[in-house]
Design a protein that fits this description.
Blueprint lengths: L2 H16 L6 H22 L6 H8 L10 H18 L10 H11 L5 H4 L11 E3 L5 E3 L6 H20 L8 H15 L6 H15 L12 H14 L3 H23 L11 H14 L5 H24 L5 E10 L2 E5 L7 H12 L2 E2 L2 E2 L7 E11 L8 E10 L2 E8 L9 E8 L7 H24 L9
Antiparallel strand pairs: 1-2, 3-4, 3-7, 5-6, 7-8, 8-9, 9-10
Helix pairs in contact: 1-11, 2-3, 2-4, 2-11, 7-8, 8-9, 10-11, 13-15
């Protein structure tokens, strides 16, 4: 349906509403509360406010239940609702547009704890501002030193068009088109340091309400399209009719809510739980992903392919210094031998691939057994040229915790200790890849340890450990 067709649909809805006569106070209060709640919640949510719809409702009735939420978010929601409530009580035709009123409303909705920012509230911006659109490209708004003139022109244009509509002048702009053009021009100017989106939506609805329309609001699921149309217009000179068509659909919804309420239909929607889930996800992401079979398996694959393969390549340079070598692996400290010279048949390869599909680690089904520890052991037997027989082992040990794992690389063959010596230790989050620097740290720790220890054994420069 085109923008023009939606304007006609609005007229039809208004006519249907008018047929019911004066709206009873109880129903009018129900309609206004619904639209006020949606307007408060969605407009502030678009600007990063963390309050959920349920919490917004408690702020609106002064029964604040928003434990743990920033004071700024709570206060700005209260301020916004105060302004919205005033506008919702306006009568038809009460459109008073001026530069001072725009500044007054900006002062009314904003809240800053930082004294440095408080001085910018209700004042035209004193520095240029810009944004990165949904295509990742920078868009610069009107320069700060042009704001006063541009806002003066916008207010004058709005009031001139208002007079044309009042006189029913031929060619006068449609009231909805007036509201939407104001919206676009205002956002292009971006007159304040912050709060431009909220004030743009406030004045758009102010114009609509003054012409007998209900306010419109933009839901979470509609936000992406809203910004897409703005980007197309601001950055690429796109067709404003597409934006108008989209916004007109939102206004049709508000009119339909009004008619449905009058006709006794249910208008309460299920509370928007999307934001609740997003906030919970954000809190959970601070600690990282918790341990689960799939997370554990994906982490194991990262360690095996990124880290263990790099360690094996490094240790491969040392093999010729020893008579032989062997690789072992373990799950929960239960060892298995992995012979590097063992060649698999085609059927055996398929069997291993099938096991991988079943999410097994070294033969252990991770959905049937809790994996608490995995390890790799690279053992080098009998160092050539050493005064006494000596073996070296490098262990890569992973201990899985609830919110991450401990990575420990240990070695034997130390000239100072018979037992394992930790040469590298880190805590990491699950499914976290290894940077080039981290891989280099591991490799260098192993190389430095082995070279130093092998030199001592071959050169015989230190005989204090001949008992080893």
């Amino acid at each position: 349906m085109s923008y023009i067709e939606k304007l006609q649909q609005m007229s039809d809805l208004q006519a249907a509403i008018a047929q019911h006569g004066a709206i009873p106070v109880a129903l009018l209060n129900k309609i206004n509360y619904k639209l006020r709640l949606e307007w408060n919640y969605t407009s502030n949510s678009m600007e990063g406010n963390s309050l959920t719809k349920r919490e917004t409702r408690t702020v609106m009735i002064d029964a604040i239940d928003v434990n743990g939420k920033p004071l700024k978010d709570i206060q700005e929601m209260k301020n916004h609702d105060k302004v919205v409530s005033t506008i919702m009580r306006m009568g038809k035709g009460e459109l008073n547009m001026s530069e001072s009123r725009i500044k007054e409303i900006h002062t009314g909705i904003m809240y800053e704890e930082n004294p440095e920012n408080q001085k910018y509230i209700g004042q035209w911006k004193n520095a240029d501002n810009y944004m990165y659109n949904n295509e990742g490209e920078r868009y610069d708004f009107v320069p700060h030193d042009h704001v006063s003139q541009r806002m003066h022109e916008l207010v004058n244009w709005t009031n001139d068009e208002k007079e044309k509509i009042a006189r029913d002048q031929k060619g006068a702009i449609h009231p909805v088109s007036l509201a939407l053009k104001f919206h676009l021009d205002y956002l292009n100017i971006h007159p304040f340091y912050d709060g431009n989106g909220r004030t743009a939506r406030i004045f758009t609805n102010l114009i609509l309400i003054s012409y007998g329309y209900p306010p419109l609001y933009i839901k979470e699921t509609e936000k992406k399209n809203y910004y897409k149309y703005l980007t197309d217009i601001q950055s690429y000179g796109g067709d404003t009719n597409l934006f108008n068509d989209f916004m007109a659909g939102l206004l049709v919804r508000s009119l339909q809510i009004t008619l449905d309420t009058i006709e006794g239909k249910e208008i309460e929607e299920e509370d928007d739980f999307v934001k609740e889930i997003q906030l919970l996800k954000a809190k959970g992401s601070i600690k990282g992903k918790p341990k689960s079979p799939k997370v554990l398996y994906n982490t194991y694959r990262i360690i095996e392919t990124e880290l263990w393969e790099r360690i094996k390549q490094t240790l491969g340079h040392f093999k010729e210094l020893f008579n032989e070598f062997q690789i072992f692996c373990s799950v929960n400290n239960s060892h298995q031998i992995s012979d590097p010279d063992w060649h698999l048949t085609a059927s055996e390869v398929n069997g291993i691939l099938n096991n991988l599909g079943k999410k097994k680690i070294f033969g252990i089904d991770i959905y049937e057994n809790d994996v608490k520890n995995i390890g790799w052991e690279y053992k080098l037997f009998s160092l050539n040229g050493a005064e006494i027989p000596i073996d070296f082992c490098i262990y890569l040990n992973i201990d899985f915790r609830h919110y991450g794992y401990d990575l420990n690389i240990m070695a034997t063959g130390s000239q100072d200790e018979i037992f394992l010596k930790s040469i590298y230790n880190r805590e990491k989050k699950y499914e976290e890849s290894f940077s080039i620097n981290q891989l280099s740290e591991v490799v260098n720790a192993i190389k430095n340890h082995l070279i130093n220890e092998i030199k001592v054994r071959i050169d015989g420069s230190d005989n204090k450990n001949d008992h080893y």
